[in-house]
Write a structure and sequence with these properties.
Strand order of the largest sheet: 1-2-3-4-5
CATH superfamily: STAS domain
Order of helices and strands: HEEHEHEHE
CATH architecture: 2-Layer Sandwich
Shape: globular
Number of helices: 4
Strand content: 25-35%
CATH topology: Transcription Regulator spoIIAA
Largest sheet: 5 strands, mixed
Number of domains: 1
Number of strands: 5
CATH class: Alpha Beta
């Protein structure tokens, strides 16, 4: 399957900052694209990463999320995970990242 068909992203500005909506599979093939999209959203006062449409998330996706969180912290940007799918929430819980990230 082609990389763009495996994962989709869209960036939306709102009154709080930016929301990146992620859909599909975040894996070793797509995580670099996600990392780039998240990095390109800065600077913004708030970055919400909407994982409601994520159907698969592995350690490479977690690495992209952790890197974005660090970049946001360094830039003074509020970083949140918004509406994670059951799959994404479970991976965040198993990894222990749910205790270190703001999840809405």
């Amino acid at each position: 399957m082609h990389e763009q068909l495996r994962m989709g992203t869209s960036v939306h500005d709102d009154e709080h900052g930016r929301r990146v909506v992620v859909t599909g599979e975040v894996d070793p093939l797509t995580a670099p694209t996600l990392a780039s999209v998240l990095q390109d959203t800065l600077p913004t006062p708030r970055l919400a990463v909407d994982l409601a449409g994520v159907t698969f998330l592995d350690s490479s996706g977690l690495r992209a999320i952790v890197s974005a969180n660090k970049a946001c912290t360094d830039a003074g940007t509020v970083f949140v995970i918004a509406a994670p799918s059951d799959v994404a929430r479970r991976v965040l819980e198993i990894s222990g990242l749910d205790a270190h990230l703001t999840i809405e």
